[in-house]
Amino acid sequence: NPLRWRCAPEVGEPRGNATESPTSDAEQPPTATDQSDDQIAVRRTLRVHRPSTAQKLLQWSVWGPLILQTLILMCEVWPPRQSLYTCPSATTVPAWILWLRENSHPDDALICLPFPTGYTVRDYEDTTLWMYWGTLHHRPLVNGYSGFFPKHFVDLKENLARFHRTEGDQAGQPQLMLYPGDSFGLKDVNLCQARFAVVKRSFATRDDVWQHPITKFRWSWVTGDEEHQLDVYEILPPDPE
Q1: Which has the least CB within 10 A, 76, 121, 178, 202?
Q2: Helix-helix angle 125-137:95-103, to 10 degrees
Q3: Beta-strand pair 110-113/196-200
Q4: In sequence order, what are the beta bridge partners of 232?
């Protein structure tokens, strides 16, 4: 019975032939011959699209100078190394700030000296440090910088920039004893409504303050900070006439 041969073939009997297999020709796996033919076709395609030596030289003649010019420009405009300022640690509060916290009112203003005399970033380096300390003592500051300076600040800054300078040192570092006895800058300091003057010792020592006629009877020493080499003076009101 042909149905029996197809459904249950005997042992040793063939299970079918190519015409009786349920798998179609399209589903047959490719043979080794077919794979070799495909590989040959791929190689021929790559050989056709592979650039010749003349084409490679033409490409390099176009892109080579552009790459070289780009590298040269990158070297010419290489950004300089940034000079960063090391911010003081806020874990240890300076002694002068602790004194202000305990002995002054939150509305008591401060003026910190020396005042900047120029307009460069380096000139305002000390100012930024005074502003940083302000985040710890929380007292108003006469010092500061901004995109806009009010006129009274500009006048104070210009007057404090007028002090005796040695020849060849027009920039100069301001010091109390270099200001004349009738200095408008120091007079402005006494009238700026600041209660305390925080003074670096490189600007003035206690002896300097006592010797200068404008500060002698107006600046009263209240505390000092040996670690940061500065002193705090209370700016006293003028004597009533």
Answers
A1: 76
A2: 50
A3: parallel
A4: 198, 223
